[in-house]
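thought: user wants a sequence for this fold. calling inverse folding tool.
action: design(structure=
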C-alpha cells in the first residue's frame, strides 16, 4: 500500500517507519524522508472519519457518518484527471 506522502522540505517520498494504533479509528505513524541527504522525520496521524460505502460485514460497534455525496463523488476521480467527463457536459 502506498500513501503518497511527500517530505515538506525536499519534496521526496516519505515512508512509514512504524505506527501505533491509538483507537479503532486512529493510528499514529512515524515517517522518514527517503532522501538520505534530507533525513527529516515526522509524526503523523491517520484518522478514519467517514464511511464512503457501507460494509458487507458491518460491525455493530462501528458508528461512522456516511460521507456526503459530493465527497464520495470526488473520491472516485483520480487526482490527475484532466480528461473531460462527457456525463458532466
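)
observation: tool returned 89 residues.
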Amino acid at each position: 500500500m502506498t500513501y503518497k506522502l511527500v517530505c515538506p522540505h525536499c519534496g521526496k517520498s516519505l515512508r512509514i517507519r512504524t505506527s501505533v494504533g491509538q483507537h479503532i479509528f486512529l493510528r499514529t505513524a512515524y515517517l522518514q524522508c527517503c532522501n538520505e541527504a534530507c533525513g527529516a522525520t515526522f509524526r503523523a496521524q491517520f484518522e478514519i472519519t467517514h464511511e464512503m460505502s457501507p460494509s458487507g460485514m458491518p460491525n455493530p460497534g462501528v458508528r461512522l457518518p456516511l460521507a456526503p455525496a459530493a465527497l464520495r463523488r470526488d473520491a472516485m476521480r483520480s487526482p490527475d484527471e484532466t480528461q473531460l467527463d462527457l456525463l458532466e457536459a
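thought: summarizing for user.
answer: Here is the designed sequence. Helices lie at 69-75.
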